[in-house]
Amino acid sequence: MVRPNGNYLERQVLEGSPLEHLILLYGKALNSLRLAKNAIERGLNDPETVKAKVENLSKAMDILIYLQAILDLEKGGEIAKNLKEIYQTLIQALIEVNFSNNLKPLNDSIEILEKLRSAWMEIRHNQKTS
Nearest Cα to 110, choosing from 45, 42, 41? Predict the structure, then answer.
């Protein structure tokens, strides 16, 4: 039996454009970062909370590594080069967070990803209305 939410997500993945996939990946990374932030804020006093932090930071880093790997630097030009640098900076920040539990680079990373996701969503909106 397929859950309604699972069915919706499956349909988004199967029928979505590359832009839709990109927006979904940003959303998943943001969700993972927020869960890691919640774990740090709750206090890392038990193994399950530490595990939640590490797993969610790892998920977000995996997404960023993937996004970096699929960039086409030739076709994407300056934008692709800038995104590559941004992704690399975010990955480094999340590595720091994993060891230091410092919320500043985590909050900064969330803010940057939210802005990038919003920019891609604006592009999607403009494509639909033109």
Answer: 41
- pLDDT digit string, tens, across residues 109-129: 999 999 999 999 999 999 989
In this predicted model, what pLDDT tens digit does every residue of 1-55 receive, in sequence order?
444 555 765 666 667 799 999 999 999 999 999 999 999 999 999 999 999 999 9
Please enumerate in sequence order all residues whose Cβ is within 8 A of that of 103, keeping only pairs 6 or more positions apart, or say none.
Answer: 37, 40, 41, 97
Q: For residue 117, which amino acid is it?
A: R
Which of 89, 109, 88 has the alpha carbon at shortest distance from 30? 109
Q: Which two tokens stand for residue 88?
A: 């690399």
Asked whether the beta carbons of 13 and 21 are under 8 A apart, the reply is yes
Residue whose token pair is 């977000």: 60
Q: pLDDT digit string (tens) for 45-82?
A: 999 999 999 999 999 999 999 999 999 999 999 999 99
What amino acid occupies position 81? K
Q: What angle do CA 88, 97, 76 make, to 5 degrees?
A: 15
Q: Looking at the chain, list the stretches that DSSP marks H as alpha helix, in order from N- to C-terminal side.
A: 4-15, 18-42, 47-69, 73-100, 103-129
